[in-house]
Amino acid sequence: MAIRRVGFLADTHSRKDDGTDVPAQVDEAFAGVDLIVHLGDVGKKTFITRLQAIAPVWVPDEERKGYVAFESDDTPQKVIDVGGLRLGLTFNLALPDKKIVVEDDTIVFPDAPLAGLLTRRFSEPVDLVAFGGTHRELRQEHEGVLFFNPGSPTLPADRRDDDDLGSVAVLDVAKGKAKVDLVRLTAS
After folding, report:
1. Residues 85-95, buried b or exposed e (16+ Cβ, 10 A)?
2. What is the DSSP string of the chain?
3. I need a surface site. Which of 47, 63, 141, 179 has the fewest CB within 10 A?
4. Shortest CA distance to 7 belongs to which of 58, 78, 74, 70?
């Protein structure tokens, strides 16, 4: 099956055994996706079973060498094909060399061309990069590469009011064009 729509979440830090601290609005936001990727800081993984009813779920492998299907022993992958575009997956955008840094709502890039750095990090060129770790939703393009962070659906760094639960992201690739929706989740 070709992957064209992917749901992303990160930084859930789930603490409840039944997974109810990850809001049901996440499920609604991911309706119709082909794949769900949790970029990292999962916490208790019980809620992932709930997400598997929507689409296959990938999580970081235990050694953080890439991403694997939940409860599988597949070879970890750092890059996946989404609608013909190469999507790099990482949790901490600054690692391993701190040449790219996230400062609040902005990504700071090195002065050197980005293509070589990203190829070293992902072992191949990428068109998009999904990352987590900041609890802030973010979308920024640099040198033709689209970077995005879904934020956190449970512990957002920028909670706007009592009804604001946080955010997730949905990537949709059609005809070689990527569109990332940063979806704010609300209690009402």
Report:
1. bbbbbbbbbee
2. ----EEEEE----B--TT-TTS-THHHHHTTT-SEEEE-S--BS-HHHHHHHTTS-EEEE-TTSSSEEETT--PPPBSEEEETTEEEEE-S-TTTTT-SSEEETTEEEPPSS-HHHHHHHHHSS--SEEE--SSSSEEEEEETTEEEEEE--SSS-TT--STTEEEEEEEEEEETTEEEEEEEEEE--
3. 63
4. 58
Domain that holds residue 175: 5-186
* Residues contacting residue 155 through CB under 8 Å, at least 6 positions apart: 11, 12, 13, 135, 166
User: Can you say whether the dihedral through the CA atoms of 5, 178, 84, 39 is positive or negative?
Assistant: negative
Return d(Cα 185, Cα 31) in angstroms, integer: 14
pTM, two decimal places = 0.95
Gap between the Cα atoms of 136 and 124, Å rounded: 27
Kindly report, residue by residue over 153-176, the tens digit of the pLDDT: 998 888 878 888 999 999 999 988
How many structural domains is the chain composed of? Answer: 1
